Amino acid sequence: MPIEMLMMVNGARTGPLPAGATMAAAAGVRPGTPDRNRDMTHPFDAAIALTPGGEHLFTGATHPAYANMVGPYGGITSATLLNAALQHPERLGAPIALTVNYAGPVADGPFEIHARPTRTNRSTQHWSLELSQQGVVATTATAVFAERRPTWSAPEAMPPGDLPPPADVPPLDWPERLPWTRRYDMRFIEGSIPQPMDGVEQPHALTRVWLRDEPPRPLDFPALASLCDAFFPRVFSRRRVFAPAGTVTLTSYFHADADLLAAQGERHVLGVARGLNYRNGFHDQSAEIWSADGQLLASTHQMVYFRD
Amino acid sequence: MPIEMLMMVNGARTGPLPAGATMAAAAGVRPGTPDRNRDMTHPFDAAIALTPGGEHLFTGATHPAYANMVGPYGGITSATLLNAALQHPERLGAPIALTVNYAGPVADGPFEIHARPTRTNRSTQHWSLELSQQGVVATTATAVFAERRPTWSAPEAMPPGDLPPPADVPPLDWPERLPWTRRYDMRFIEGSIPQPMDGVEQPHALTRVWLRDEPPRPLDFPALASLCDAFFPRVFSRRRVFAPAGTVTLTSYFHADADLLAAQGERHVLGVARGLNYRNGFHDQSAEIWSADGQLLASTHQMVYFRD
Question: Taking the C-alpha atoms of A226, A230, A235 and A241 in order, what is their torsion angle to the nearest 10 degrees?
Fold first, then answer.
């Protein structure tokens, strides 16, 4: 089974990979630009870009830089849906929670997002979001936004200690990788997937990995939402066997506010992921995203469909 | 501050407690029934009952047995929304995931639920759900259903060992309790809340508690959905101070299928809850619901609004 099966997340493939998805195009590099690093639009910003298209409506398009085996990477869809609420003129405050349901495949090409504030309170706001293509719903989502106020604050969980810094961990360097995985610098401390898969069942699927946008980009809420889906399905880590698997629903909680995101900047975040249970076609995954300074930026949970 | 503040979850109170909420009425006991245990409708079934009211529409009403300080207990609202999808003629399979967003207060009285299958695939189905009162949205939700197929299955997390059985743990017996807490037999092994609160900040908010519908009732998906919200806000366990707090969004994953639920029957489940982080008005909570036989029935996550 090809290595690409590893990346088969978020629905069933519906068409061929885009023909023009070269690495240069994927990285957003425009030919003839003298200083590419200074001048180019980051591919992440290009991928989540939306155009207002009427009341509560936005249009966008999938981007080859974040292509998966199956349409776009689920994390970029999550970030794009969040971006619709962020761009909406009625938006209040900052994201607290986001749930994205991958109801069906997203085909490469244009899409429409319906972003509706279902209720706006004094300090909280609730959103319903739907991504559709040619009138067919592909993804649904809800989000909670809020204006945070200073209160008693404290961590309860702490990040794992004694981890090697990103510079001491080699980056993932598979010869064959789907485009979206090249948009993250991934440095696995524990729980990577061997290539080729060896079929040796593991006692657990704990993964610890340094993650960073590639090329580097200052962290913001859409980028954090996307990082929440950047873990390979737990069933691959656990079984070391390739088989179809895909996220059906993803919930992300944003513990970070704008100040914490600004403090993080372009550095690596630490991702820690695990599963609780695998049963008859579905398993869960929970993960935390920790800042370089050991602050909890996000916690995230998903249910994943899998086959033998 | 009154003990009732403890139960102030899911929105701001909008009206007086229902005058007729006696314990007899709350337990669904009808006067003059010779064999009450055999004949009565369980209050849970009465509380989640829905009447079809048109395409994708159902009507229901809050039930005094599950009254909170603030409208109905959030778990019963979650169960009622799930029930709308379960009762819908187009429903496929069994629940896999449910996200409920408590957008605003639910007033005591009638409500309307709009339950729409947003996409039906071969083996999965996605739902959008909204509970409204007099045209104002109070609660939104999404759900994923699926027809499970046998696959490789395995636990990863295990339930805590060496716990005393329910019979050896005293039930919660506060003199003043809001109605919904009397609909659960709660036996705290660890992490209960002192009465009165002593303001002694704890190093963590870990809770282990045996839970069971009161009176006993065979476990099904709506009852499991409701149990997922039966933990007091983590900030109360952590700080031992009363202050307003309420769930803003609740996601529950159903690891159990119908066979596991049938095997559980009316016995106590074990609930284990904790938080990761408390920051400027919001904290998370994650919990597992374990069967009496040590099987994971559900895992559940929420973000909670809190004030000092």
Answer: 130
Dihedral class, residue B18 (left if φ above 0, else alpha if ψ from -120 to 50, else beta)? beta
Determine the Cα angle at B44 with ends B39 and B47, to 5°.
110
- ipTM for the whole complex: 0.89
**Beta strands of A51-123 (E only): which ranges?**
51-52, 57-61, 94-102, 110-120
Cα separation, B164 vs B171, whole angstroms: 13
Cα–chain-centroid distance for residue B11?
Answer: 15
Judged by DSSP in three states, B260 sits in helix
| pLDDT digits 0-9 by tens, B198-235 | 999 999 999 999 999 999 999 999 999 999 999 999 99
Which residue in chain B is spatially nearest to A256 when comparing CA positions?
A: B279
Inter-chain contacts counted by CB atoms under 8 A, chains A and B: 207
The amino acid sitting at B225 is A
Instruction: Tell me if residue B284 falls in helix, strand or coil.
Output: strand
| A139 in B contact zone (CB under 8 Å) | no
For B12, other C-beta atoms within 10 Å of its C-beta total: 14
The rounded distance, in Å, linking the Cα atoms of A187 and A189 is 6
CB contact under 8 A, B253 and A128: no
Buried b (16+ CB within 10 A) or exposed e, B80-102: bbbbbbbbbeebbebbbbbbbbb
Q: Helix or strand or coil: residue B79? A: helix
* Extended beta strands in chain A, E state: 51-52, 57-61, 94-102, 110-120, 124-133, 136-146, 154-155, 184-190, 207-213, 245-254, 269-274, 277-279, 282-290, 296-306
Residue with tokens 């187009």: B90
Q: For residue B308, which residues of chain A lie inside 8 Å, CB to CB?
A: 151-152
B65 Cβ contact partners less than 8 Å away, ≥ 6 residues apart: B21, B25, B26, B27, B28, B43, B46, B47, B179, B180, B183
Contacts of residue A86, Cβ cutoff 8 Å, sequence gap at least 6: A95, A221, A222
Q: Which of residues 73-112 of B touch A (CB under 8 A)?
A: 96-97, 99, 101, 103-104
Rounded to two decimals, what is the model's pTM? 0.90
3-state DSSP call for residue A44? helix
Using the 8-state DSSP alphabet, how is residue B3 labeled?
G
Tens digits of residue pLDDT in A9-51 = 343 322 332 333 332 333 333 333 444 455 589 999 999 999 9
Structure tokens at B236: 């109360």
Q: Pick from A229, A60, A79, A63: which is nearest to A143 by CA?
A: A79
d(CA B156, CA B74): 29
